[in-house]
């Protein structure tokens, strides 16, 4: 018999069967998938590590942020933006829209729950997702849980974690250093020399905002970048590109965009900003690099209010030495160095994602992997691409449920009264299980286990297919174990020497086992990844 210490982790975390997809991430992409699943009548669970939906927008963006694209390209499926919203909604307006979206579809994510690992268990054909919840137990350890699901939707997106580059001497700099995710406004930087490292959309907008607060920004432009006007001739540049791509090849559209940019912005290479050799759309498709949509930063660069410098060689105390050997005074540093996917830190044993944490197959073919794994929000095409993938994922899972039956047929549920008897009903997927074997030792231990123990952690006997755990749910409970078979083809066998005193239950078409729990005493059954004690109702 295995020792208690060996199985201690079982009782540190609750094991939960999800009768539908498990969605990791409650950003716009995760919400979009959930809403589409709701339309198909498929239950789901959303896990979110932060305390709110769209935490990137709520907790890691600057105050002046607006959507870079017109609202019709940023709305989620099934619910458009309100008519009175402007063409480019503000940060707060977009957050309000997402919160109303979640309320409208009653999505109800589980907040404060971080996924530690997710791995497909080929033996039982399920995903095992281990999490840590934000609250702490009385003993001071973080509570853990394990979710078991047939489908796993990765919705953590392209911007899960900040990118913090290693820069020589930064620890000796002495001034304030933050990532742009911690920047809110330039109010705290009035009159200061601020070095903005990075020239993407965030770097450009942070530098522009610093100008509006009478700071003196210097922007580090290390790599080539495409800068396009947000609007051309009164129309969204993105909208023009979308229209042209219906009729023209991508490279031709790129040439048109660059011509329009030259007409509107002039030759930006004179400002110290080099353009890549590939066109803006081609570069986006092949490398995922988003062109900067200018909303006023270039005019500040032309006027000298924003200085442009090449890369930083090293930092000194209160200064920065540039790669061209100039030394400039710096009071603060803002790292507008972007974000990255964190998929590889927790998703195990799958090759759907490349080394950078993006689907190996580019849009529109990167949304589906194998074994019930899906990805949404990795299209490198913003919210419109994520919405298209969300619709496909929900349709795919909904189609499976229509063909094979609704997953709620195979859920588990339990009820425990404060006094008297309680009934524990457990539904197993009948296509997964053909034989369950119950160790004799588990039964023989039960009457003695509860006596004198406030909580007994585990009585365990393990063999290849099945593990049986005995635990008390309350103190000083009497024990009664009554098994009732609800299927004629389910029956107990006599002692079988070949199975070493196990009592197998043959379930060739098993759909239901029921047994009683008397005054809080039960046996928790675990079939590989499946523990039927706790059931999550989406």
UniProtKB/TrEMBL annotation:
Signal peptide: none annotated. It catalyses: indole-3-pyruvate + NADPH + O2 + H(+) = (indol-3-yl)acetate + CO2 + NADP(+) + H2O. Its cofactor is FAD. Keywords: FAD, Flavoprotein, Monooxygenase, NADP, Oxidoreductase. GO terms for molecular function: flavin adenine dinucleotide binding; indole-3-pyruvate monooxygenase activity; N,N-dimethylaniline monooxygenase activity; NADP binding. One of its GO terms (biological process) is auxin biosynthetic process. The keyword NADP applies. InterPro entries: Auxin_biosynth/cation_transpt, FAD/NAD-bd_sf, Flavin_mOase-like. Its EC number is 1.-.-.-. The keyword RNA-binding does not apply. It holds the Pfam family FMO-like. It is an enzyme of class 1 (oxidoreductase). Belongs to the FMO family. This is Flavin-containing monooxygenase. It comes from Musa troglodytarum (fe'i banana).
């Amino acid at each position: 018999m295995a020792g208690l210490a060996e199985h201690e982790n079982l009782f540190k975390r609750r094991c939960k069967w999800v009768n539908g997809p498990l969605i990791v991430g409650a950003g716009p992409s995760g919400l979009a998938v959930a809403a589409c699943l709701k339309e198909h009548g498929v239950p789901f669970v959303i896990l979110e590590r932060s305390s709110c939906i769209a935490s990137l927008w709520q907790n890691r963006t600057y105050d002046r942020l607006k959507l870079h694209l017109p609202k019709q390209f940023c709305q989620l499926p099934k619910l458009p933006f309100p008519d009175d919203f402007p063409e480019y909604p503000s940060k707060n307006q977009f957050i309000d829209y997402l919160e109303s979206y979640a309320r409208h579809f009653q999505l109800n994510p589980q907040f404060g729950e971080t996924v530690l690992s997710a791995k497909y268990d080929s033996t039982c054909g399920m995903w095992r997702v281990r999490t840590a919840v934000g609250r702490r137990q009385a003993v001071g350890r973080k509570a853990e849980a394990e979710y078991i699901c047939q489908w796993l939707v990765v919705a953590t997106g392209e911007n899960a974690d900040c990118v913090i580059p290693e820069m020589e001497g930064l620890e000796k700099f002495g001034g304030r250093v933050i990532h742009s995710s911690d920047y809110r406004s330039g109010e705290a930087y009035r009159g200061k020399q601020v070095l903005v490292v990075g020239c993407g959309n965030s770097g450009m907008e942070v530098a522009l905002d610093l100008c509006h607060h009478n700071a003196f920004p210097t922007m580090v432009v290390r790599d080539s970048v495409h800068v396009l006007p947000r609007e051309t001739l009164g129309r969204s540049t993105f909208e023009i590109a979308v229209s042209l791509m219906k009729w023209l090849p991508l490279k031709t559209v790129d040439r048109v965009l660059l011509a329009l940019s030259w007409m509107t912005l002039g030759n930006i290479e004179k400002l110290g900003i080099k353009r890549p050799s590939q066109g803006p759309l081609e570069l986006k498709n092949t490398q995922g690099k988003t062109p900067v949509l200018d909303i006023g930063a270039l005019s500040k660069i032309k006027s000298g209010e924003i200085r442009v410098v090449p890369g930083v060689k090293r930092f000194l105390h209160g200064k920065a030495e540039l790669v061209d050997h100039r030394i400039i005074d710096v009071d603060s540093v803002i790292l507008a160095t972007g974000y990255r996917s964190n998929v590889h830190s927790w998703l195990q044993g799958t090759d759907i994602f490349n080394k950078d944490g993006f689907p190996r197959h580019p849009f529109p073919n990167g949304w589906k992997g194998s074994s019930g794994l899906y990805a949404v929000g990795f299209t490198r095409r913003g919210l419109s691409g994520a919405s298209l993938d969300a619709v496909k994922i929900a349709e795919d899972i909904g189609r499976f449920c229509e063909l094979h039956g609704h997953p709620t047929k195979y859920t588990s549920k339990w009820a425990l009264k404060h006094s008297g008897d309680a009934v524990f009903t457990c539904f197993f997927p009948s296509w997964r299980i053909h034989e369950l074997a119950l160790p004799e030792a588990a039964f023989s231990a039960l009457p003695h286990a509860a006596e004198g123990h406030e909580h007994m952690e585990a009585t365990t006997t393990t063999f290849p297919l099945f593990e049986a755990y005995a635990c008390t749910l309350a103190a000083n409970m009497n024990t009664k174990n009554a098994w009732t078979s609800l299927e004629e083809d389910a029956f107990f066998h006599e002692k079988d020497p070949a199975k070493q005193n196990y009592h197998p239950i043959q379930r060739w078409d098993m759909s239901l086992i029921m047994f009683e729990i008397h005054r809080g005493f039960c046996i928790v059954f675990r079939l590989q990844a499946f523990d039927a004690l706790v059931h999550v109702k989406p």
